[in-house]
Amino acid sequence: MNQFKFEGKLKMTFLVMMLIGVVSLAITFIGDDAVHSRFWSNILHNSVFFTGIAMLALFMLCAKITAFSGWHTVFKRVWESYSLFLVVGLVLMLIVAVGLWGHWHHLYHWNDAEAVANDPILQGKSGFLNKGWYTFGTIAIMGVWILIAGRIRSLSKQEDQSGDSSFSYHRKMRIWAAAGLPILGFTSAAMIWQWVMSVDAHWYSTLFAWYNAASMMVAMVALTIICLIYLKSKGYLTQLNQEHLHDLGKYMFAFSIFWTYLWFSQYMLIWYGNIGEETIYFKERLDNYRFLFFLNLGINFFLPFFVLMRNDTKRKYGTLIFTSIFLILGHWLDFFLMLKPGILHTTQEALAHSGAVEHAGHAFTAGFSLPGFLEFGTMIGFLGLFLYAFFFNLSRANLVPTRDPYLMESVHHHV
User: Fold this and answer.
1) Tens digits of residue pLDDT in 49-87
2) What is the dihedral angle through the alpha carbons of 19, 22, 24, 26, rounded to the nearest 10 degrees?
3) What residue numbers bound the domain in which 248 lies?
4) Has this prediction a pTM greater than 0.85?
């Protein structure tokens, strides 16, 4: 079977997941504080996380095409379909941007005009941290990402439909991929600074964009493994073998180690430098989010390190699925820890300033101190949306690109 059928039962599963997400968001909104900080932070958290997975899938496609790689060809339609979620991701991020203009949320301290007027640090960063840059920068940069993803996908489909097994279409794809690599590399950092790092507007780190990208990469590879094993269990992708999954397992292991290297490097350099505007980020998380801080390291480093170190574990479906599920959850928690403390602080300042409540300090706060059922329910909804878009796009082209000149290299791939 070389045409994936997106059948009603699977659609219904994802629609139910999305319904769980909608209900979770509705309950969050109803029981939220005066500025609906938990509601909006959950939207931002999941929008960035799943948009990042789509962006990293596009980055991997560009890297493989530019490097004349062939081993991934059998399953490259999966990454192509992931990358097309960027269209949905743009809509999600624009919802957050509209909230900035309407002052519907207090996710970002730099969007408070009075706070900026009384803060020389925020004034110094105001040329970049402002709602105009956030909105139109997101539209322009993600628009370019979507253009690159769309052109690579279109050329890949044309190659199949034309019956041309030469390199003519691949040469065109290579031009887009070679241009895409530096564009994605530089612009994704700008978006990460805007979307994620600026919730702690006084803080900065030269490693933060790399750290984010590594986290998204692990989650993307883990989700790829789960989807490939699912498709194979349903009789699709018969040419996919253990060698492909073994290589993906190696990627998952390697990027988990790379993520840990960046985690340690960022922490060690900031601890050693002991500069106040840098150390406050980790002091906040160590003092008030200690359980999540070390759980993050436990799931995202120790688990893959000890499970995937052995060569044979990267060839076993059960082990791969187990590790992949935990790593997706682990890196979702990683983004929770990146976003929630800064948003909570900004929200408490806004509520205290308005007189709605006194400054709450660091008491346990539902949805911020730890993720609750509503956070997990929202994540399930966004995952359902991502998978619905993925399988829909997957069904719009041949599952295996039969005219790709590297197909036989992929079919006979052996490590």
Assistant:
1) 999 999 999 999 999 999 999 999 999 999 999 999 999
2) -140
3) 8-400
4) yes
